[in-house]
Amino acid sequence: MADARASGGWFRLRLLDRYVLALTLRPMLMSLGVVLTALLLERVLRLVDMLATAGAPIILVVSLSTNLIPHYLGFALPAGFALGIFSAVSRLSLGAELEAMLASGVSIQSVLRPLVALGCILSLISILVVGYLAPYCRYAYRDIINSSVAYAWRAHAPAATFISVKDGLTITADEVDKTGRQLKGVFIQNRDQGADVVTSSVAGTLELTPDKTQIQLKLHNGVVVRDYGAARPSTLRFQELVLDKKFDLQAPPFRPRGGNERELTLSELWSEMNSPMPSSPLNELQAEFHSRLARSLSLPFLPLLIVPLSMTMRRNARVGNAAASAVLMVLFHNALQIGQTFAHKGIGWAPLDCWAPFFVYVAFALWLYRTSTDRPGDTVVSRALDRVRRVIESLTRRVGARLQAAKS
Q1: What residues are paired with 169 via a beta bridge?
Q2: Other C-beta atoms within 10 Å of 60: how many?
Q3: Element containing residue 176 per DSSP (H, E)
Q4: Averaged over 129-142, what is the pLDDT?
Q5: 208 pairs with which residues across the strands?
Q6: Element (H, E) at 163
Q7: Which element (helix H / strand E) includes 33?
Q8: Which of 43, 159, 251, 291 could form a disulfide with 151 if both were Cys (CB 3.0 to 4.6 A apart)?
Q9: pLDDT band at residue 150, thresholds of 50, 70 and 90?
Q10: Residue 244 predicted with pLDDT over 80
Q11: What does the pLDDT read at residue 173?
């Protein structure tokens, strides 16, 4: 309290606060970008494959990826914040700045204060993104999938690519012109009235129907083979054939938002939870509501966990503490995910399933911080790592001595 009064209160940014925040924000933003890109990259590759298979424009991957950013930001934000804190405090320790500050009477709380304040700001941002923006983006993502992949075929057939369209129809062509409408070497496979139907033709044309509401495929110089399982399949040769299946230019309007609890905002989830006739099972609504809040509210307590583990000048200890920090973060977020899964399946009481990992995490972070302020850099985690390292070194020496004795 004395330190806070001397500095003019908790809401005034001192020179030290600005310095700590500057050291934290740059690596945090860089690592946030790296983590977010890594999370999106694997999904983008799957989206490109899905769009190409459906014959949809590949450019749609931009819209789909943009709508995925709020979802992945909820996972990337804690990781980026943790890396920023570890980088900033480690830099203070390695440059002997932390020792100089402690020697001059500046407490660890002075370093922690701006980081906790930043965690509170990031927590509010996380609530806005995960609680309100992500549901709308998730609905927009599913709307794009419905209109461009699941329902309508855009009448663009990439060459040498099997396109799966509605009614179990598979189409491919050896050559396609720049418009995607003139095809050569067309092959079509589908199932009709219990028979496997294969249609091949020298050429084909995608064109509008006479009423200009649908797309039809007109084939030239080909053959239709129907296999009913008999000894000899039925064969029909044609000079010109219009495929009996038509393709809509546009998909019908997508369902209203809210068909899934993950498309509801926090306010809407709260209203549904207190509704006499909720749109989804109560346990599913509670699981989504409490898990979002627990994940977002964990950010202000993250400095309590990371700061003690980053206050060390030994290189080996720093690497070990960084690995321990990553493991603890992964354990916490996996525990939150497991709790959400249990709550979603109705196993136990949903608020307890979602908040129990949060309170264990907060209690451990507070205990780790309180037991490390007297001797910065000396924590129960670092001592455990030192014991493990000594055991490994002892075993290595014994094995080396035995091998040396066996050689002599």
Answers
A1: 165
A2: 20
A3: strand 169-176
A4: 94
A5: 215
A6: strand 163-165
A7: helix 15-54
A8: 251
A9: low
A10: no
A11: 83
Tokens of 27: 């690596």
Residue type, 62: V
1 confidence band (pLDDT: 50, 70, 90): very low
- Asked if pLDDT for residue 208 goes beyond 50, the answer is yes
Largest CA distance in the chain: 96
Please indicate, yes or no, whether the overall pTM of this predicted structure exceeds 0.85. no
Distance CA 214, CA 245 (A): 10
Measured CA distances, 123 to 32, 204, 297, 358 (Å): 15, 57, 6, 14
Helices (H), 179-314: 266-273, 282-297, 302-310
Q: 297 is written with which tokens?
A: 């509210």
Residue 317 clears pLDDT 70, i.e. is over it: no
Which value, in Å, is the radius of gyration of the alpha carbons in the chain?
30
Task: Tell me how far apart the alpha carbons of residues 194 and 291 are, in angstroms, rounded to a whole number.
Answer: 48
Collapsing DSSP to helix, strand or coil, 366 comes out as helix
Contact in structure between 116 and 11 (CB atoms under 8 Å): no
Span between the terminal Cα atoms of the chain, in Å: 67
Instruction: Tell me the mean pLDDT in the region 70-76.
Output: 91
Q: Which residues have C-beta within 8 Å of that of residue 203, sequence separation ≥ 6?
A: 182, 183, 184, 186, 219, 220, 221
User: Domain map of the chain by residue range?
Assistant: 2-148+258-377, 163-248
Cβ contact 189:170 at 8 Å: yes
Task: Give the separation between CA 27 and CA 47, rounded to whole angstroms.
Answer: 30
Q: Cα separation of 233 and 259, whole Å? A: 46
Which tops the pLDDT comparison, 233 or 138?
138
Q: How far apart are CA 263 and CA 134, in angstroms?
A: 8
Predicted pLDDT of residue 136: 95
Residues, the chain? 408
Tokens 């769009």 correspond to 51
The H or E element containing residue 192 is: strand 182-192
Contact between 241 and 219 (Cβ < 8 Å): yes
